[in-house]
Write a sequence for this structure.
């Protein structure tokens, strides 16, 4: 975690250890960050431990369709007579896997394009910035639907589709930060001593962009999960791996609503909402904690924090 | 007499701006520098001091057109391609940049930044590089173990020393120091100047010291060149320039410097420097010069050496025999 040493060159007391401690303290002082972290961590743990937590495998029929919640099945059964709680836990695996993997793809694509564009500038920047702008105005969801329909439903395809359409924000944020870092004295000095591009980027530019990239990626996880849910709800999910979106879709098309089986639809919906909120809380807090300037400038999303932070 | 280690001839820098007349930031500067010699470049803001230093290293942006000759140990630098210049840079000519804080990466240990220089130029690596970095730090008066610290844990003077250590990493022959003492208090300033003097004497390092502070130059340089609007107006012995300035600009500059000894009021130089995008035929100082006469407006005075007194570019001294006057731009 070398990136947590950054962005406070004026903080002159103590070494890197205490800087790290203070960055941590800043995260902790925000209950929102803690809450978000707990939510996300909780879901991740549940997804990992799915085989231990579930009595039934995914898609196992255990009773009549839409059986209401009971002691044996706390969240009832769905349209196929599958235990909703077990299915929910198995679904966490799929939804989170797609969310994190798609966010990683978008971090990779957005990060490298933003880096190239901001670092080299000139013609490279002109071309790449146009590409970014172009992707930015593409209506993402309709395009995802079309591509998913053409490529056919599979977890891998969904990851690639979602990842390749969500990188634009990351690219723009990274590009702007790289442009600013690039003009700093020590980057110029590194050029003057004859350091190559790779060395300058890895050593002098990336550490200053890392935190932003991480924060952005966490935010993207939420967006990716949301996008996957939407696709799955529209019937474009992987039929062999039921995500939360697919559960909602199955219950919906199995007329859970007319059967009054709210337990088949509401829990997966709440899970999606909870994970997205968790990711947003973590992402925004990390962004703030690692870039104190955000908290004190007009760029802050929560300028009212200023008053409370003043006595930090 | 020893061969000059750095020899600059008729160096010109033009910034081509789209849709506007080009800016001529440096208009034909020539000087020689021998090993162990310290030359001070002095002048007001925007007179081309820093641009000149950057041009010597080839660090100006691509919009700059640099012409003339820069020879280091007889090797022409301006003709080299990017790759070859990367090698010469720092191994032959190194630079201490204006503002030491910004030239150190805040998230990399000072020692590692010196090691970086060594490994880029394949001088040393691993343990050897680390040891050499320690030696370099000791050489500039920083205990080697302090190299494990980060730049923000250094004082302003120490950062400047670290920047000098970094410049010395590949044992260059020429050191360009761009305002190395700006933003330092007088004590730290004196220490840095002393350090530069000591290094140049011990290592036979030729130093170009860029400053707007006459006192700094007078204290630590052998020779001083007074620059104005991208040209050298007067270049001679540092003591002579400040004790007996001859060019009207140099005279007025010295008089505009506050001193503690005499109660003389500070005399400001009226007017403003010429626009760099304007065509200049005569002496650039003409509009502000109290002694301007007939030829000043149209004819460019050459930087002519007069006897043992150094060179001055002024028509007032035209009667003197012109010796070894470098060719100058007339358009």
């Amino acid at each position: 975690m070398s990136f947590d040493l950054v962005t406070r060159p004026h903080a002159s007391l103590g070494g890197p250890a205490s800087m790290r401690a203070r960055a941590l303290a800043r995260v902790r002082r925000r209950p929102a960050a803690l809450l978000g972290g707990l939510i996300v961590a909780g879901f991740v743990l549940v997804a990992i431990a799915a085989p231990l937590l579930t009595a039934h495998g995914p898609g196992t029929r255990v009773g009549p369709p839409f059986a209401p919640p009971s002691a044996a099945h706390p969240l009832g059964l769905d349209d196929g007579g599958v235990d909703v709680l077990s299915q929910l836990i198995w679904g966490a695996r799929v939804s989170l896997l797609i969310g994190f993997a798609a966010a990683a793809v978008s971090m990779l694509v957005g990060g490298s394009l933003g880096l190239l564009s901001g670092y080299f500038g000139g013609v490279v920047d002109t071309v790449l910035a146009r590409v970014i702008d172009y992707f930015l105005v593409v209506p993402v969801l309709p395009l995802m639907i079309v591509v998913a329909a053409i490529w056919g439903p599979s977890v891998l395809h969904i990851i690639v589709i979602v990842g390749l359409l969500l990188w634009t924000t990351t690219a723009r944020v990274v590009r702007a930060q790289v442009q600013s870092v690039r003009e700093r004295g020590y980057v110029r000095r590194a050029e003057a001593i004859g350091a190559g591009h790779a060395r300058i980027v890895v050593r002098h530019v990336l550490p200053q962009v890392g935190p932003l990239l991480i924060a952005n990626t966490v935010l993207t996880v939420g967006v990716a999960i949301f996008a996957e849910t939407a696709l799955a709800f529209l019937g474009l999910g992987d039929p062999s791996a039921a995500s939360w979106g697919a559960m909602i879709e199955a219950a919906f098309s199995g007329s859970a609503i007319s059967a009054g089986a709210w337990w088949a639809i509401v829990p997966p919906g709440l899970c999606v909402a909870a994970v997205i909120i968790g990711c947003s809380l973590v992402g925004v807090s990390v962004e703030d904690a690692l870039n104190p300037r955000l908290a004190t400038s007009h760029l802050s999303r929560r300028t009212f924090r200023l008053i409370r932070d003043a006595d930090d | 007499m020893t061969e000059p280690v750095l020899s600059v001839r008729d160096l010109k820098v033009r910034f081509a701006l789209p849709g506007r007349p080009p800016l001529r930031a440096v208009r034909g500067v020539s000087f020689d520098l021998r090993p162990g010699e310290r030359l001070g470049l002095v002048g007001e803001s925007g007179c081309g001091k820093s641009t000149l230093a950057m041009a010597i290293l080839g660090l100006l942006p691509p919009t700059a057109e640099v012409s003339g000759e820069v020879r280091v140990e007889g090797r022409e630098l301006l003709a080299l391609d990017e790759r070859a210049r990367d090698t010469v840079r720092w191994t032959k000519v190194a630079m201490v940049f204006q503002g030491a804080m910004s030239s150190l990466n805040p998230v990399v240990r000072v020692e590692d930044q010196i090691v970086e220089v060594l490994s880029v130029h394949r001088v040393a690596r691993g343990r050897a590089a680390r040891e050499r970095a320690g030696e370099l730090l000791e050489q500039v008066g920083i205990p080697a173990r302090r190299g494990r610290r980060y730049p923000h844990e250094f004082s302003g003077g120490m950062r400047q020393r670290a920047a000098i250590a970094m410049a010395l990493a590949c044992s260059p022959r020429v050191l360009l120091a761009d305002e190395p003492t700006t933003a330092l208090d007088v004590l730290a300033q004196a220490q840095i100047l002393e350090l530069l003097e000591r290094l140049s004497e011990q290592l036979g390092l030729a130093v170009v010291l860029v400053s707007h502070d006459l006192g700094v130059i007078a204290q630590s340089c052998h020779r001083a060149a007074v620059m104005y609007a991208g040209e050298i107006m007067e270049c001679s012995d540092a003591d002579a320039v400040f004790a007996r300035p001859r060019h009207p600009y140099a005279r007025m500059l010295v008089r505009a410097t506050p001193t503690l000894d005499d109660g003389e009021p500070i005399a400001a130089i009226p007017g403003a420097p010429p626009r760099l995008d304007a065509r200049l035929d005569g002496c650039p100082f003409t509009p502000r010069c109290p002694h301007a006469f007939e030829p000043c407006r149209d004819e460019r005075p050459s930087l002519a050496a007069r006897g043992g007194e150094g060179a001055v570019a002024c028509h007032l001294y035209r009667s003197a025999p012109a010796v070894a006057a470098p060719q100058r731009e007339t358009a």
Q: What stands out?
A: Confidence is low (pLDDT under 50) at residues 1-14, 302-312 of chain A. The CA atoms of residues 174 and 213 of chain A lie 7 Å apart. The longest helix of chain A spans residues 84-120.
